[in-house]
Design a protein that fits this description.
10 helices; about 210 residues; mainly alpha; single chain
Length: about 210
C-alpha cells in the first residue's frame, strides 16, 4: 500500500481542487494518513490497533466498507472523513494494480505472496522518496484535531501523538533512503500514472464529474 508521502501527495492534489479553508485542508490531510496512525508508526506511543480494523477490512475484504458507514459525512464532504476514505481508496487501488496486473506481468510472478509484498513495499518506498509533505499543524491545533480524529471509531490518538506525527513528517523520519536504487516492478512514470488515475477515479466515484 502507499506510504504517507504518497497519500499526502494525493491529498494535496485533490485539496487544490476543493474549496477547503486552511483549517479544513489540515483536517483533510490528517484524514489522508489517519487509518495508519494506530498501526505502530508512532513507536508504540499510540494505542495499537489491528490494520484490518482501522482500514475497515471485513471478512469479505472490502476496505471501502467505511463509505457505507459514513456516507452522510462523505456526501457532505466533511474533510477528515473524506481524507480517511481517500486513504482507503488509494490502498485498495494500488494493491489491486500490483497484485492483479503489474506483478503478474513481471519476472517475479512466480514468487510467494510475502516475497511479492516485499517488492511492492520496496517500490512504493522508492516512489515515496519523490515527495516530502506534512500536515502543517502546530501544537495549538493538536487538541482540536485529536478530538476530531477520535470521532472516527477505530482511532485512538492524543494531541501529543499528532505533534509527533507532524515532527515525523516534517523531518521525513519515516522515509527510507533509496538513492541510487532502481525500481524492480514499476517505473516512476508508471507510478505517476497510477497515482493520477487513482485520484481521477476517486473524484468520479465520490465527488462527481464537477465539484470545484
Amino acid at each position: 500500500m502507499p506510504s504517507w508521502n504518497i497519500h499526502l501527495e494525493a491529498g494535496n492534489r485533490l485539496a487544490d481542487k476543493l474549496n477547503f479553508s486552511p483549517k479544513e485542508r489540515k483536517e483533510f490531510l490528517l484524514g489522508c494518513i489517519l487509518p495508519d496512525v494506530n498501526n505502530g508508526h508512532l513507536y508504540n506511543k499510540a494505542v495499537f490497533k489491528d490494520h484490518d480494523y482501522t482500514h475497515y477490512i471485513s471478512d469479505v475484504k472490502n476496505p471501502l466498507d467505511f463509505y457505507t458507514k459514513n456516507q452522510d459525512k462523505i456526501d457532505q464532504r466533511v474533510p477528515i472523513h473524506l481524507g480517511y476514505l481517500l486513504h482507503l481508496f488509494l490502498d485498495n487501488y494500488f494493491n489491486q494494480d500490483f497484485y492483479q496486473h503489474t506483478v503478474q506481468d513481471s519476472q517475479y510472478s512466480h514468487l510467494p505472496r510475502p516475497k511479492q509484498r516485499d517488492l511492492k513495499h520496496r517500490d512504493f518506498w522508492l516512489y515515496d522518496a519523490k515527495f516530502h509533505h506534512s500536515i502543517g499543524l502546530d501544537q495549538s491545533e493538536a487538541n482540536q484535531l485529536a478530538s476530531l480524529a477520535n470521532s472516527i471509531p477505530p482511532i485512538d490518538i492524543t494531541a501529543e501523538n499528532l505533534v509527533e506525527i507532524e515532527k515525523l513528517l516534517t523531518n521525513n523520519e519515516l522515509g527510507h533512503s533509496r538513492k541510487g536504487e532502481n525500481y524492480l516492478i514499476y517505473t516512476e512514470a508508471k507510478l505517476d500514472h497510477l497515482l493520477e488515475s487513482a485520484i481521477e477515479d476517486f473524484e468520479k466515484q465520490y465527488l462527481g464529474e464537477s465539484y470545484a
